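User: Hey, my collaborator sent me this sequence without any context and asked if I could get a structure. I don't really work with proteins. Can you help?
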Amino acid sequence: MDKLIIEVRINEYASRRRNPHVPFSPGEIAADALECLDAGAAIIHYHARDPVSGAPSSRAEDYAAAARKIKAASDLLIMPTLGAWTLPSPEARMSHIVAMAKDPATRPDLAPIDMGTSNVDAYDARGRRFTTDETVYLNTTRTLQYFARTIREAGVRPVAVWWNVSAIRTTAAFVEAGLFAEPVYGQIVLTEGGFFAGNPGSVRGMQAMADFIPHSARMPWSVMCAGGNLFPIAGAAIERGGHLAIGLGDYAYEELGQPSNAHLVERIAALARACGREPASPAEARAMLGAG
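Assistant: No problem. I've predicted the 3D structure and written it out in structure-token form, which is a compact way to encode the shape of the chain:
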């Protein structure tokens, strides 16, 4: 069985209210990334944040500053986010990737594409009410084709992010149409914590998605759990040949006593070894994902 690729979803839009170890500044992101490398990670996924307030930043220079520091000190695969529903156009969502790719010192290795449109409103179970009710993460087929072509032209590998089965089917069509070149790294998104855009954060939720990954295509896949604990799912993903994407950006892991990202990676790496799968190095992950 292949080695296990561990991706760290290092900060997303998480606050420090529930876990003070969420990195904000480029220096914090880079330092955290290097600790995660030592613990067994191969891929770092991050969002640019204001160094003081932690507010989301869409500035290319903030993304580039973190990438430059990580690339200068390691061979980690770097995957900045694309801008989501908070930015006004597909071009704005892609602009930092295009800018970063012009300089080898900041060029991303991977860029994620959410392969469909989703309702992303939040539900407050305690209050029995939705706290938002009109938030749509719009990704039209035209937008997705633009992302695929632009990422390829920038010399970056796309990552297909799957919130539902239709996203997997769309990815297969993109391969058939020549918009994606195999291997295509796919990511199953499970959701918890009042976030209903993905399947539940359970083995059944994961398997219901994995069943539709086409066996005829080269699509190594990982699983994440936004808003919930990934560990109850991790062993099943490892046993099924999947990979894992974990981090404080998705969940604070207060049941572990406010761990760091590196601590989460250490636990995943130990579980992988106990199951007979060694964590992949960045070089091995590059070869597995065609990102060399």
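In plain terms: The longest strand covers residues 185-191. You can pass these tokens on to your collaborator as they are.
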